[in-house]
Design goal:
The complex is a heterodimer. By secondary structure, chain A is an alpha/beta fold. Chain A has three domains: about 240 residues, P-loop containing nucleotide triphosphate hydrolases (Rossmann fold); about 150 residues, P-loop containing nucleotide triphosphate hydrolases (Rossmann fold); about 70 residues, no CATH class. Chain A is about 35% helix and about 25% strand. Chain A contains 19 helices and 24 strands. Chain A has a six-stranded mixed sheet, sandwiched between helices. In chain A, strands 18-21-22-15-23-24 form a six-stranded mixed sheet, with helices on both faces. In chain A, strand 4 and strand 5 form a beta hairpin. By secondary structure, chain B is an all-alpha fold. Chain B has one domain: ABC transporter involved in vitamin B12 uptake, BtuC (Orthogonal Bundle). Helices cover about 75% and strands about 0% of the residues of chain B. Chain B has 15 helices and four strands. Chain B has a two-stranded antiparallel ribbon with strand order 1-4. In chain B, strand 2 and strand 3 form a beta hairpin. The two termini of chain B are about 20 Å apart. The chains are: A alpha/beta, B mainly alpha. At the A-B interface, helix 11, helix 12, helix 14 and strand 20 of A face helix 1, helix 10 and helix 11 of B.
Chain lengths: ~500, ~325
Amino acid sequence: MENKTPLLQMKNISKSFPGVKALDQVQLEVQTGEVHALLGENGAGKSTLIKILGGLLVPDEGEIYLDGTKVDMKDVSSSESMGISVIHQELCLAPNMTVAENIVLGREPSRGPWHLINRKEIKQFGQDILNQFDLEIDAGEYVSNLTVAEQQMVEIAKALSKDNRIIVMDEPTSSLTEKEVVKLLDTIRGLKQKGVSVIYISHRMEELFSIADKVTILRDGTYVGTRNMNDVGYQGLVQMMVGRELSEIYTKPTVQPGEKILEVRNLTSGKKVKNVSFSLYKGEILGIYGLVGSGRTELMRTIFGIDKSTSGDIYINNKKVRIQNPQDAIKYGIGFVPEDRKEQGAILIQSVSYNVSLTRLNKLVKWFQVDHRQEDRLVEQYIDKLSIRTPSPEQKLMHLSGGNQQKAIISKWLATEPNILILDEPTRGIDVGAKKEIYSIMSDLAQSGVSIIMVSSELPEIINMSTRVMTMNQGEISGELTIESEITQENILTHATGGINNESEFAKS
Amino acid sequence: MKANLQSLNQTALKKKGSWTKLPMMNFVVSNSGILIALISLIVFFALTTSTFMTPSNLLNVLRQISINAIIAFGMTFTILITGIDLSVGSVLAASQVITIGLLFMGVPIIPALFGGILIGAVLGFINGFVITKGKIPPFIVTLSMMIMARGLSYVLTGGRPMSFNNDVLSFIGNGYIGPIPVPVIIMIICLILTSFVLNKTRFGRHVYAVGGNREAARFSGIRISKIEMIVYTISGVLAGLSGVILAARMSSAQPTSGSGFELDAIAAVVLGGTSFSGGIGKIGGVFIGALIIGVLNNGLNLLHVSSYWQMIIKGLVIVTAVYVDSVKKKKST
């Protein structure tokens, strides 16, 4: 099998975006009936490579071969017509239509010169496909009534129903439960037997070791290597992914945490945050880990006043406060770098300067006008301090790399001189170099007495940056790890999946 | 990657160091598309008619556009925050009716003028209040207000036009300060004020933030509902002011006046390079947009083109100008 022409070859693929080289001479080779893992840190270029394969992006350089023949992947339909199907991380189902209608979307069975469709026929067609994969989902149900996991399974069923030769799955298990993951992995094994190739992207090493035949590793947009899964161990993979010693990237603060600065008591918000209590101390980095849907982001939104709390209290410096909106939170010295940089953090069509000074305008106004000289001074100070790489303060934020955008958003909050800084997924989608810089900024802030809450779904980041770790599961705090040696991957995962119900942590405060 | 960025740095610095530093040039460059359109129109009418390029006609053009421009300045605020204000034409009529009505009732001239502006402010505020508190799309709220304000004008007048003669009133509508018509002076004051508010004040920054990314603005501690209410109030005030000017120009009020004005204002805003997806647009550009429409109206009239054909030509010019602008913008990014 090894000597056969590979089913898919991507050769010397390069792609640049303004200010960033996303891919530089990357290659990927997939055999028929192979499960091929694509591994790399956030920002390594996996998504870009997949988007090129799916016809969503056109590469600047490089060729793609199918069965040894060069093909032109100019748009999504050409990719689909070659039997390639990409299941993107973001779900692409129409919520206002039924499951069956979604499955047949774009290829509805129709008859007659007016292409009349038959609702019953569509529903039957969809149900057959669902049954084929043992999915207990009603084909007539509206997608908006399904859980995220069910939607994911529908998405997969839709891709599988198209007789594809290559199926790309981008983080398919990120919102699935343990049971559903097992089902998905079984489905993939079945596909493999039918000779379908699967390109599988996931951060969960256990999954990769149980399902993948081969692995290709990318780092900072470059090709690192391809290995047989059996030949490499966990350590080896991480080494290839990160490309340097872990200690080089992470800088944990060394100060002892000081007095209690924030206390949350029995905070509840809707169904996502249930009776949460915890404290935050001066100068610590409190890592909060939880799977998607664990309520970690909602907890932060509630503390920051974006979501309304239904019950519970917040104390700052031992004084009870009411935070009803972000303005209140800012007044009490809280800053919030949200998880979705593009949607919630940055105003991309505006300049770096505009974004950085936005939270500080009240201090910059003189005679009803924004004082530009003071503003420039403020902005340049942060560009310098956080080494934001931008041609000028007037450059639009959308032309900067993800890491530099994130640094601008952090600057925006530092400009308010916060005592508490909440960072939700601070390094999502940015390259290793910028990550390292953001970690050292966080560490410096903690050293200088700012208390940091870092919400993250990246275990290495949680383990190596937090001075204390809390886990969340189904809207509740499911565990706390305070001793450095306790902060391990196994401990965090058991707590995060609700393995151990540790309630004693409230006793301390 | 670093080398890449450095070279980017250098080219950008070079660019910045040269002539684009002058604020006026910046304005010309960013509006080059519609400026070219405006200049070509002026040249065309200057060559084809003998009367277009005379000072009195040019001042006449400015006076003709003053009402549309003032409404369009307010409309710009609403479109910048991804909203719209369809009620401006009806609000104008209501303001006109209130102004003349107050004078009829014996109210002195100055309070009567303020009464007209005030009704605009109140109706605009109601728009903003319902949009933010009721979470109803601006299109629907202002459409309803458009119908209701029109109804109000009919109710107040019983459907009949009314007229009233007053020296101050006719000075505002038809007088001159030096060679310049009073409505033109009011328009220029509005131009300076609104562009100051958008460019220089904290409120202006917040308007662009809400339009650029509503979520990010919220996360940054900006009170979105407050900004929205102020924006719709501004639009109402400017529509009310236009109503007062129109009342002054005609020394009368008609419940039917101002219908379709919202579309002319939207056309000027769009011609001026304001993005319907929010956060992009300048008052200066909108002023040029209003000028293009005014020049076109005036020039075509001088050429004795029938008003039916004028509509077709106007539509074509708007869609072409916006198309050219969007092509230009795509190239530059």
